[in-house]
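[SOLVED] Need 3D model of a four-part complex

Original post:
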Amino acid sequence: MIDRLFGDLTRAGLAALAAFVLLLLVLPGFATGYILSVTTIILYLAFVGQAWNLMLGFAGLLSIGHALFMGIGAYASAYLFARHGLPPIVGLIVGGGLAVAVGAAISALAFRFAIGGVYFALLTIAFAEFTRIMVDHARFLGGTEGLFLPVSAESRQGFDLFHLRGRPEMFYYVIMLLCLGAHALCRWLLTSRAGYYWRAVRDNPQAAEALGVNIFRYRMYAVMVSSGMAATAGVFYAFFYNNLFPEQIFSVERSIEMTLAPIVGGVGTLFGPIFGAFVLTPLGEVLTWAIEWLQHEEIIGKQVKVDGVKLLFWGIAVAAIVLLQPRGLWPWACKRLGLIRAPEDREEGR
Amino acid sequence: MERLSSRTSRRSVLAGGAAAIATSIAPFSIGRAQASKLKVGVLLPRSGPQAQIGIDCQRGADVAINVLKAKGFPELEFVLGDTETNPQIARAQAEKLIDQGIHVLTGCFDSGQTLAAAQVCEQKGIPLVVNIAAVPSLTDQGYKTVFRNFPTGPMIATDAFQLQKELYTAAGKAPKTVVMIHANDTFGASQADAAFGLLPKMDMPYTFVERISYDPTARDLSAEIRKGKGTNADAVWFISRLNDAMALCREMVKQRWEPMGILSSGPGWYEGQFLQNLGKHGDDVVSFIPWYDPNKAMSKAMTAEFTKQFPNLQLNTNHAHTFEALLIASDAYKRAGATDPAKLIEALQKTDIKDNVTVGPGVKFNEKGQNTATRCSAIQNRGGKTPTIFPAAAAEVKPTWPMRGWDKRA
Amino acid sequence: MDTVTLLNVLVAGLLTGCVYGLSALGLSVIFGVIRIVNFAHGEILVVGMFMALVLFRWIGLDPLLSIPVVAAVLFAFGYLLQASVIQRVAHLPEHMQFLLLAAIAIAMVSGCLIVFGPDAQNVQLDYALDSFAVGGLIIDKTRAYAAVAAVALAAALLAFFRFSGTGRAIRACADNYLGAQVVGLNVSRLYAFTFGIGSACIGAAGCIILLLVDVHPYLAPGYTLLAFVVVIIGGMGSLFGALLGGILIGVAEALAAEMIQPSLKSAFSFALLILVLLFRPQGLLGKAGR
Amino acid sequence: MSTLLDVAGVGKSFKGLRAVHDVSFQVSEKEIFALIGPNGAGKTTTFNLIAGAIRTDTGGIRFAGRDIVGLRPDQICDAGIGRTFQIVMPFPDLTVLENVMVGALHGETDVAAARRRALDCLALLELDTRRHVYAANLTLPDRKRLEVARALATRPRLLLLDEVMAGLRPTETDRMVAILKRLRAETGLTILLIEHVMRAVMALSDRVLVLHHGERIAEGTPEEVTADPAVLECYLGSAPV
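Solution:
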C-alpha cells in the first residue's frame, strides 16, 4: 500500500515529507497565534487547491467557480447548526451531498451539451454568480445580512471536535488532517482506475474513448469528488469563521483564490497545491517586509501605498512563475532537490 | 487571491525584516511586559474596495493621538494592521497585532471584518473597542471583550425617524409617501428591515410605497432610479455606499426626478468625495447618521487638531468615531492604571465619559458592551460642507426643506 | 406597466446595453483572432479611463476628444504585451494563459492604486448630466452618445477587418493559423497588431464610459466579468454579436429591475448566459464549430 | 468460419460531400482483412463509422451478430473492437506503460492485473525497454507500435489498424507483419487494416477490399485485386473516360 501510494518519492522525498508532516504536527507547540492563524489559512488553501487540482490537473476540467461548491458546504452546515442545532457532521453529509449533486448537475448539462475548455470555466463562474445573487435574497439563510454561527466564550477555549467548537489549535489540527487526508486521497485516486482514466481523458479524450473509457462518466466523477472536497472545506470555513456573507463566500475572487496555489505549485502534481500555498502566502509577507524596509531606508517614499506596491510585485512574481516555470514550482523544486523518482527508478521500490 | 499583508509596528520596522519575523514569532507576553505606553492595535481596511474609508478612519486616530495627549490622557502607541477588506485577513491580522503585544484593539469599520477580529479578541481576552460597525450581532452574540460606541442598524433607523419628525415639524412640510432604495448588502438590508419594521410604531406622517434593493456591484443604476421615480413618492430614502451614492444622485439629475427631498441613512451621501464629484447637485441631501456634536468641548479640540493636520478635508463620522474609540481606550487605561487586558476590560465596563465628541449624553456600555445612549444627527449638504441641522442641541444651521430643483441651484 | 414606462425602460435598457456592448468589443476582437481569453480586459478599460481622466485634469481635454490619444497609447501597450509576454504562453494550456493574464491584471490594478489612489474620480462636464425629454420619454444624453459611438466603433472595426489589407490578413490568421503561415503572413506580428487593436478599442470605450461612471481601480474585475457575459451571449469574435449581447443584457436587466427587483437583475444576465452556453455555446451571432 | 463484422451498405456525407457510399463487406473470424485505396477513398471514414467516432447516415453495421450503429466509441470498445488512429494519439504526459495500462484496465478488475497485462502487450510489441519514457518523447515508429499495444491491451476480438506501417522502414514493416501474424496465431484475433504499404498488405491479408471515391470497386485475395484493371486504373491515374 505504502509502495503504491508513495512509490514515486525518493528517500530524500520521503524524508522531506515526513519532516514536513512532523513540523506541522508540532507547530502549535511553539507558534504564536498569528503564525498558527496564517498556517491554518495556508492549509485551508492547500486543501481547496487539491480539490480544484483534482478536476483540472487530473481530469482536465477548468473551473473558475469553485466557490460555489465551497459555499454550498459552508451555508448548508451553518444553516443546520445555527437554525436546527445539528452538528457539523450532518452539515457535511447534507452540504457535501448537495454540492456533489449540484456539481453532477452542472457537469451533466455541460458534458451533454459538449461544453469544454474556457466555456466550461465560464459556465462555472455563471453558476457561482447566479447562486451568490440567489443567496443574497434567501432570507432563511440570512441574505446579505449574514448567517452567524452561535459560539460562546467557553466553547472557544474547548476542544469539542464533534461540534467543531474550540481553540484555534483544534481548527488547525482539523484542517491539517483534512489537508493530509486529501493528499492521501489524491494519491490513492491517481493510482487507481479513475486516476488512469482521468489522465487519459485529460490528455486525449478521443483516444481514451476508443480504449473503452466512458469519458462522460469519469468527468462526472472528477467533478463530484472535487465538489465534495470543496464542500468539506466550506464546512470548515463556516465553523472556523462563524460568519457567512454571500458576497464573501461566493465571490469570483474566492474562486480565483482557490486556483492560485495549484497553478503556481504545479497543476496535475500531487504536492503542487500544498507547495504553492506554502509559497504564495509567505511571498506576500516577504514583499511587505521588503517594501517597509525600503520605505524606512527612504529608498522609496512613505507616501507610496505599501499594499499597492506589494500587489504590483506579487502580480509580477506570479506572471514570472507562469512564464519561467509553466509546469509549476513543485516539479522544478523536485528536480533540483531530487525528491521524486524518475519513472524508470520506481520499479525497484516495489 | 491570498494576500496576507501587514503593517508591522513602527518599532519592528526600525529593526528591519529579520527582526519583524522575530517579533511575530516571539511569545506575546514578553512584548507586553515591557510596555509602558498603551499599545493600541488599529485594524482597518487599508487596501481593497474599502481602502478609502479605512485610510479615512486612520486620520481620526492620527488626530486623537495629539488631542488626547494635550488633554492629559496617557500616551498611546499605535500598531497598524490592514484587513485588505477581507474578514479572513482581518482575523489573521488581529492575531498578528495581539502577538505584537497590543493591549487593546480598535477597528475595523466593516461588520464582517469586525466580527472576525472580535472572535480572536474574545479568545485571547483582548478588549476590542469598535470604531464603526452597525451589525446587531456584534454585541448580541455574547462577546465579553467587545465594546461598541456606534449605533446598531435598528438604532440608526429609529433615530432617522425621530430626526425626520423634527425636520418636518420645523419645515412645516412632510412627505406622504417615501420610497426606500437600499444596497442589498449587510448594512443596507439590515437597516431597511429595521426601518420597515419600525415605521408602524413611529407615528410617521408617511408610508413606504416601495422597497427597492439593488446589487451594490451592479455597473449601472439607471433602472433603480427609474423604478424609484416611477413610484411618484414624495421623498426618497437611500441607504447606499459612496460609489453607488454618486451614481444614484447623477441618475436622479439625468432622469429629472425632483422629489421633496433626499433622505439618507448610510455612508456615501455626505462624504467628501461625493460633495466634490457632485458639486451643486449634491446639495440639500439630508443624512441621518452617527456624527459628532460640534458644540461639545472635546469636539472643538478634535476639530481644531483635524483642521491643523488635514486643512483640505472635512471632518466626518469616520474620523469622529475612530477618535472616540481611542478616547474610550485611553480613558479605560487611565482608570485601570495598568495595561493588563483583564483590568482594561473591567475598566471599559465601568466607562462613563461625559466629555466626548459624538452625539448623545456620553459613553456608557450596557452588559453587552453596547452604548445604547449614542445618538445620530441629521446633517445637510451645503455647498461642500455638512453642517448639523438636528438634534437642536447640536445644530449649526437651519434646514432647507423641500430641496431645491436640479436647475434651481446656483 | 403603462406604455410610457415600458418605452422608457426599453430605451434605457437599449442604451445601457449599447454601453455594455461597447465595453466588451475589445474582448471579442482579441478572442476572435488570437483565441486568448483576456482576463485583464477590465483592467485595460480602467487604465483607459484613468488616462482620459488625466488628460481632462491636465489640459481640460473632453474625454470624447481624448479617444485618439488613449487609443494610440493602448494600441502600443497591447501590441507590446502580446509581442513580449502573451506570445510566449500561446502554446500553453488555457489555465496558464488565464493565470498569466489574471496576474497582469492584479499588477495593473495595483499600479493604478499606487498612481491614482483608491478614490472614485470623475470628470465634470456640462453635458454629462443632460438628458433629452420627448414627451414622457427621457433619454440620457451621454448614454445616447455612447450608443452611437458603440455602433460606429463596431462598424469601423468591421470595415477594417473586411476591407483593409491588414484586416483581411488578420482574418486569414483567425480562420486558418497554419494556412496563414504557409502563405507567408507574419502571424505573430499580426497577432500583436490584433491585441493592439483590441486594446485601442477598449481604450476608446474607457473614454466614453468615463462620462457615465466614476473611475477607481476596483472597478476592473466587474467589467471583466460583464464583458465575458456580453461576448459569450453575443458570440465570441463577432463584433455585432457583442453589441447584440450587450443590448440583450441591458434590456433584460432593465425589465427585471422594473418588474421584479433591481438587486436580482444580474441574476437574469447570468441565467441568460447559462442558457446560451448550453444551447448555443458559440453565442447568438458566433460561428458554429469551435 | 462465421462472420464477425458485417458492414452492410453504409454511407456517410459531410456537408453534401459523399465520403462513403453504399459500402458492404464482411470480415470473418480470425481473418486479416485489408482496406486499400488512394487518398480520399473513404477508408478512414469507414473505420470511424465502425468505431463509433462518427455516425452512419445509411446502412447497418453488425458485430458478432449485434447491431452496433449508434453506440459510443467506448461502448464499441466494450463490444470487443479495438482501434488505432491514423494520426497517432498517445497520452503525452503518461509513460508508455501507463498509456497501455489505460487500455489494459478495460476488462481487468484491478490495477496490478492491468499492469501485468500492459507489460505483456509491450513485450509483444517489443516496446518493453521504452516503458518508462513519456509518450511525448517517443519516435514515430514507437508511437505507431504504442497505438497497437494500447488497442491490443483492451482485449479486442477485432482490431482496427489504421496505417500502422506508414513511415516505417522495410525492416520495421516486416517486424510488424510478423508481430501481427503471431498475434492472430496465438490469440485468434481478427484484424481489419487500412494500409498503403503494399508489401505489408500482400504479406498479411487474407482478403482485400478496394475503395475509390467512397465506393467499393473490388474485393478478393491480394493477388486478385492487384490484377484487377479497375484497381490499377484508380491507382495509376484514370484512363480517359
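Edit: Chain B has 15 helices and twelve strands.
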